[in-house]
Design a protein that fits this description.
The protein is mostly beta strands. Helix content is 0%, strand content 66%. The chain has no helices and 15 strands. The chain has a 15-stranded parallel beta sheet that branches. It is globular and about 45 Å long. The N and C termini lie far apart (41 Å).
Length: 171
Amino acid sequence: FNGTQTFATGTVVFLGPNSNLACVGNMTLTFGPDVVVRGTNGQIGRDWISSGTTTIINQGLISADVPGTIQIEPEVFTNQGTIEAINGGTLQVRNLNGSAGSVTRATGGSTLTLLGTWSTNDTITSTDSTVNLEGNFTLPAATPFNRSGGTVNLKGNLDNTGNTLNLDAST
């Protein structure tokens, strides 16, 4: 992809090693609400040969839905849709900027990593999975973190001023 573009509808399936959805130079790529990006061992981000700032805005679904790793690595990633790691998949989101999105979840032995400067007012759900909360982030008091089994790793700076983050067996 090159320039400012919207991928309005369709499905991208990463099928194996070195699958890459590359953006070239200074650009903004928006995945519309009817876009699904899924699969195993893929990368979404800037083409490492070119220079510039790549921004990706997700309004659809990005799902690491099978064993393997999907990495989202532009210079700026904004999620206005759904990101998830399910069925043993791993989703690594780097340079998350602003909201973590409407639905963020990890289930079935998966790993979800959120790294950047971000916050969320929506639920983060983890069932028998690992969630890595990294970077500089805020979880307001109204934000539920629903966890059943698994592990939550805090690796960064959580601004939790005036709030309580419950990570016990019942949350």
